[in-house]
Structure formats: structure tokens, C-alpha cells
Design a protein that fits this description.
Blueprint lengths: L1 E4 L2 E4 L4 E2 L2 E5 L33 H13 L4 E6 L1 H5 L8 H16 L3 E6 L16 H6 L15 H4 L23 H16 L10 H20 L5 E5 L31 E2 L3 H8 L4 E8 L6 E9 L14 H4 L3 E2 L2 E2 L7 E2 L2 E2 L2 H20 L4 E4 L3 H5 L12 E3 L6 H6 L10 H13 L9 E2 L8 H11 L7 H16 L3 E7 L39 H4 L3 E5 L1 E9 L4 E8 L7 E4 L9 E6 L1 E3 L7 E6 L3 E9 L1
Parallel strand pairs: 4-5, 4-18, 5-6, 6-7, 7-15, 15-16, 17-18
Antiparallel strand pairs: 1-2, 2-3, 3-19, 8-9, 9-10, 11-12, 13-14, 19-22, 20-21, 21-26, 22-25, 23-26, 24-25
Helix pairs in contact: 1-3, 3-7, 6-7, 6-8, 7-10, 13-15
Organism: Sphingomonas alpina
Protein name: Cellulase family glycosylhydrolase
Family: Belongs to the glycosyl hydrolase 5 (cellulase A) family.
């Protein structure tokens, strides 16, 4: 259905294609039986859960997908997880769920969406404060996830939040889930996943080298999904792994990351600044006094805030009778670092986590899905903190990759405040990420921003209070901020999939999208109050239901929208040899009565679909199409 040509997506006719879509959906991170992370959960049923019904029951699919099509989207980043496919145990697959996921893909195809499958994770798993991996992987490597919270090895909303109290709570600060990347459970699992063969070559749980075990089971789950959807042309590829981390790889054993440096350029994240040795000792049941880093309130800016004793009770997270494999390998003894360079140097040279450990995984993943269908695209991601600062993909990536890096206005995510002046920098920030794609491979690769979006609970949920008071359109700030994001995408002629559409979303500070108090869904049940209105449930629809050229008869060179004036324009280098016409999406949110079309050098064709116009180029060279709202 789609391929890549340099930095462009192209269809079978050779047209330049833009993908403008949405992530479906935020609650796919959780089993269908779990209403949200605000509820207590000991994960005791982790082997028997079901994800059937995420992102929505099949009976509701046409309603949701029809709404997304009406809003002008043509692509879906469809979320699944390793846990959804393989929660029952190694080598076991949830066949009923795979049938359900296939049915969702078929429904999406029927509504005209290009789909790429995202094997999603955040901070490794539900048992470590996020989503992704099944619970049995901890048992397989000898860890007891029931002890993670007590040992300060993971930060879980399910254990810290009082659902009876509701609202915002100091015990679980907003956007604090990401601190898990700096805690022992995450660090150990990511190190084993990407680097077990190098750093613990003798660690063979169940007789299988640990890295082979973890990556093998992950890729087997991906294979199961790939085989189930391989005959659906509209499924165009797979994401490698959402927002991967590399754990302790590349870090000196005793190094605590409290400030950026040439040697350690990654942004400092808030939370406890544990060294790899701290993490291993805490995991082995030893209290440790650790520097604490806190946000100053703006974006990536942080500052030291003293120290805190982690794991004061000395809880050990290795299962009873299981020795710490890192200690057994002679990496540390007691509190002594025996091999201080174990994770950051090899044969006298510095280890590059992406080049030396993530790149081989990219190739293994690409080979895995392409054994099932050779034409699939690979939507590649590196650590988003590194991508945001321009630290890109390693040389030697698989062919026909897409730069699927993520971008957010991080200050807005953290503060839940929109500052219009920040929007002036959006195009420059996205330009940093686009350059990663431009440099990917011999001739560059398309950039599709895999996630971008906006919290809807801005200003302590002011829009929700206004809605309850009778204001049916309290989204002025949201529309302006989303519009600025799409303006930046247009500047670079970028594709992107907005985060997110959650069918179960509620205007509730405890719940939101159902996961760790995030609330970025462009749909909410609390806004779905008018059965006769096809936009019912939408939040800030004019902000994201934007015009764009979805397929161009040649090469798109410019695209821009004046929302206030209702004028959309594109410029392109036309190639009349291409038989298929240029198609432009004009969503009803901005063009309720249609548009006057000026297309010099083109002829207007019959509209291929509601809200879409088509023009055929009659001559070669630069042409301009302007649509003005009637």
C-alpha cells in the first residue's frame, strides 16, 4: 500500500503521501478488566487477563472509526502490548485476542485507514509503573514484582494512589510515572533485554541466555500479530518498540546522573539519581542514600533537592533463593564496585548503547516481521529524550525505515499550562527531529511524529468545569495549542499520529485516559452527549481536524493553513505521468459549507469522499492549489 522514497512516503501510483492520524488508544495499555491505574492492583491475575475490547468493543468500532474518518485522519498507530499477546506465559499466545486485533484492523481498513502496529511499552510493564511486558518475565529472570514498591524499585500509581480520595495527590505527583526509568526494576530489565549477552553472558535462566529469552519471546509475540494481519494491505508496518530505554548500558557503575556533560549528554530526569551500583544494591535489599532531583516547573529544567534514603526497610526484590546474577558475575561485592566500567566500556572503548545494543535489535525486529511480509515498513524509535536533543539513529539501520520519533511540548505536559510564546519554537523543535530522519540511511527516511499531543486537563481541568456549567465549547486554549502543533508539522511537511483517542476517557482527574492520570484523548464519553451530532465526544475538534494534502500527484513542496481566514494552500511539483490525482482533505470543522477551489494548471475531479477534493495536474512543474472556505 505504501513505500518510502527518500524522505517521502509514496503510494503505488507514485504519489507523495502524508499520513495524519491518531494513536488508538490510550487505554490499550491495560487489560479490559482494569478500569484504570487509579485502582489498587496486586497483578495476581496477570496470567489470565484479557485485552479483548481494547481500544473498543467491535460493536462500537464503526462509530469510533467513522468519527475519526470524518475528522480527516487517514492513519492509525494501533496499540497492542507484549502482555496482551503473551500474558499466559512463555510460548503461549492469546488466540482470541489475536482474532480480535485482526478484526479491528479489518474495520480500520474498511474505513480507509493505513495502520501500523505499535508494540507499546512505558517503563517496561504494568508491574513497574507503566505497561508492556507480561508479568511472567520477572519470574523468568528471578525477580519478585510484588516487592518492587516496598523496595523503592518501582513507583506505582496502583499502590500510592487513594482512589477514595480522588483528584490530584502528593503521594503520586502528576507525570511522575517516568521516574521508573531511573529505578532498579526498570534498569535491570532493560539491561537484560538489550545487553544480557554482553554484561551477563553466564546468566541462563531456564537454560536459555537471558537476552535470547527476552528478545526471543518479544519477537515471537510480534510474529504472532504479524501472521494474523499479514493479508490486510492497509497494515503498512510495525513500530519497533515504543520509547525504549537502555537501562544501565553506557553508564559507569558508580555514576549518578545529576547534571548533563559531554560524556553524559542525556537530559537529567527528575527523581532519585541512582547509579547502576545503587540500583543493584537496592535490588539486593540494601538501603541507599541517593541524591534527589526535582523539576523547577518548566520542561527539562531540574535542580538538586538534597538526598533521600531509598529502600530503608531493606526489601530484596530477587526471589527467595535466587542470588543477584550481577553479584555472581563479579560486578560488585558488598558495596564495592569490582568492575566500575562494566556497563560503559568494552575492550578499552566506550560502549554506545544505541549502536552496540539497540541497532542489532532493530535488525532482528525488521527481519522478524519481514519474514511474514517483506513489504512492511519499520517505524523506528530511539529513547525519546535523546531524539528530542538531536541524538539520532545509529548508522547501519535496516532499509525502508521510518523515523517515528516522538515530540511533546514537555513544559505543557508537566505544568498543564499553555504558554503561547512557546509555540513559536515548535517548528524549530520538530526540525531537530526531522533531521534525524533526513540522516537515516543513504537517502534519508520519512519522519512521522509517532506521538505528539496536549493534555486536556489544563489549568486544573478548567475546561471540564466550564463544560459542566453549560459551556459546550470550552476549548479555546486547546484549539490554539493544537493548531500551533499542526502549523509546525505543515512547515516541515511532516506526517504524524496524534496522542491519542481513548474511547473510555472521562473528565476525571483520577482517571483521564485510564493510565497514570494522563488525559490527552481527543474524545471523551463525558463530551459524547448528542446522539445526532457526528462530532459528539470530540474535544477541541477544530484544533486537530485540519486540512492537508493526503496524496500529491508529484512532490509536495509547501502546505499551510490560515485557520482564521479559512484558507488552505499547497504547492507541488506536478508530474502528470502519475495517473492518480492530488487529493486534499478539507474537514467539515473548518469547511462546513465546502470550499472555493483555485487550481491553475489542474482540473477539478469528482470528490473521492466526503470532505476530500481531487485535482489532476495538466502540466509539469510547480503548481498551486488554494481552498477557501465558503
Amino acid at each position: 500500500m505504501l513505500d518510502v522514497r527518500g524522505t517521502r512516503f509514496v503510494d503505488r501510483s507514485g504519489r507523495h503521501v502524508l499520513l495524519r492520524g491518531v494513536n488508538l488508544g490510550g487505554d490499550c495499555k491495560l487489560p479490559a478488566s482494569v478500569s484504570g491505574t487509579h485502582l489498587r492492583d496486586d497483578f495476581a491475575d496477570h496470567r489470565t487477563v484479557s485485552f479483548i475490547g481494547r481500544p473498543f468493543p467491535l460493536a462500537e468500532a464503526d462509530g469510533h472509526l467513522g468519527r475519526l474518518a470524518r475528522w480527516g485522519f487517514n492513519a492509525l498507530r494501533l496499540l497492542t502490548t507484549w502482555e496482551a499477546v503473551a500474558h499466559a506465559g512463555p510460548g503461549m499466545r492469546d488466540e482470541a485476542y489475536l482474532d480480535y486485533l485482526r478484526a479491528v484492523c479489518l474495520k480500520a481498513a474498511a474505513h480507509g485507514f493505513a495502520v501500523f502496529i505499535d508494540f507499546h511499552q512505558d517503563v517496561w510493564s504494568r508491574m513497574t509503573g507503566g505497561d508492556g511486558a507480561p508479568g511472567w518475565v520477572f519470574e523468568a529472570v528471578g525477580l519478585d514484582f510484588t516487592r518492587f514498591g516496598a523496595a523503592d524499585a518501582a513507583h506505582l500509581m496502583q499502590q500510592r494512589y487513594d482512589s477514595a480520595m480522588g483528584g490530584r495527590q502528593a503521594a503520586y505527583p502528576q507525570m511522575s510515572w517516568g521516574s521508573n526509568y531511573r529505578l532498579p526494576a526498570n534498569a535491570i530489565m532493560w539491561t537484560l533485554f538489550f545487553g544480557g549477552a554482553r554484561f551477563l553472558p553466564g546468566f541462563r535462566p531456564g537454560g536459555t541466555p537471558v537476552q535470547d529469552l527476552l528478545q526471543g519471546e518479544y519477537l515471537a509475540a510480534m510474529t504472532a500479530v504479524a501472521e494474523r494481519v499479514a493479508d490486510i494491505p492497509e497494515v503498512i508496518g510495525f513500530d519497533t518498540l515504543n520509547e525504549p530505554d537502555t537501562g544501565m548500558i553506557g553508564r559507569p557503575l558508580t555514576y549518578r546522573h545529576c547534571a548533563r556533560s559531554v560524556e553524559q549528554p542525556e537530559p537529567v530526569r527528575p527523581g532519585l539519581a541512582m547509579s547502576p551500583l545503587d540500583m543493584l544494591l537496592i535490588a539486593d535489599g540494601r538501603p541507599r542514600e541517593i541524591p534527589l532531583v526535582v523539576r523547577t516547573g518548566q520542561g527539562f529544567e531540574v535542580e538538586p533537592a538534597g538526598h533521600r534514603v531509598a529502600n530503608p526497610a531493606g526489601v530484596r526484590i530477587w526471589r527467595d533463593g535466587v542470588a543477584c546474577p550481577f553479584a555472581e558475575a563479579g560486578i560488585y561485592d558488598g558495596e564495592t564496585a569490582l568492575r566500575p566500567d562494566h556497563f560503559d566500556r568494552a575492550d578499552g572503548a566506550a560502549i554506545d548503547p544505541e549502536r552496540d545494543h539497540v541497532l542489532p535489535f532493530f535488525h532482528a525486529m525488521a527481519a522478524t516481521v519481514r519474514r511474514v511480509r517483506p513489504d512492511w515498513l519499520v517505524f523506528a524509535e530511539v529513547n525519546p529524550f535523546k531524539a528530542f536533543t538531536g541524538m539520532g539513529f545509529p548508522d547501519g539501520m535496516p532499509d525502508r525505515c521510518v523515523n517515528a520519533s516522538h515530540w511533546y511540548d514537555f513544559a505543557t505536559l508537566v505544568t498543564k499550562q499553555v504558554e503561547p510564546r512557546r509555540a513559536t519554537s515548535y517548528a524549530a523543535q520538530l526540525g531537530v527531529i526531522k533531521r534525524l530522519g533526513d540522516a537515516l540511511g543513504e537517502s534519508g527516511a520519512p519522519t512521522l511524529i509517532g506521538e505528539f499531543g496536549l493534555p486536556f486537563d489544563l489549568d486544573q481541568g478548567a475546561a471540564y468545569a466550564a463544560w459542566r456549567a453549560g459551556d459546550t465549547a470550552p476549548w479555546e486554549d486547546h484549539i490554539a495549542a493544537l493548531g500551533a502543533m499542526y502549523d509546525a508539522l505543515d512547515t516541515h511537511l511532516m506526517s504524524g499520529t496524534l496522542w491519542n483517542y481513548t474511547a473510555s476517557n472521562r473528565n476525571d482527574a483520577a482517571l483521564g485516559d485510564g493510565w497514570n492520570q494522563e488525559d490527552l484523548s481527543i474524545f471523551s464519553l463525558d463530551q459524547a452527549t448528542h446522539d445526532g451530532d457526528p462530532d459528539s465526544g470530540g474535544r477541541a475538534v477544530p484544533g486537530f481536524a485540519r486540512p492537508y494534502a493526503r496524496a500529491v500527484q508529484g512532490v509536495l513542496t509547501e502546505q499551510g493553513f490560515d485557520a482564521a481566514g479559512g484558507v488552505f494552500r499547497i504547492a507541488f511539483d506536478a508530474d502528470p505521468v502519475i495517473a492518480a490525482p492530488t487529493e486534499i482533505v478539507l474537514p467539515v470543522a473548518h469547511f462546513p459549507r465546502g470550499a472555493a477551489i483555485e487550481a491553475v494548471g489542474c482540473e477539478r475531479l469528482a470528490d473521492p469522499a466526503p470532505g476530500v477534493i481531487a485535482v489532476r495536474a495538466l502540466e509539469t512543474g510547480p503548481l498551486l492549489v488554494v481552498a477557501t472556505a465558503l
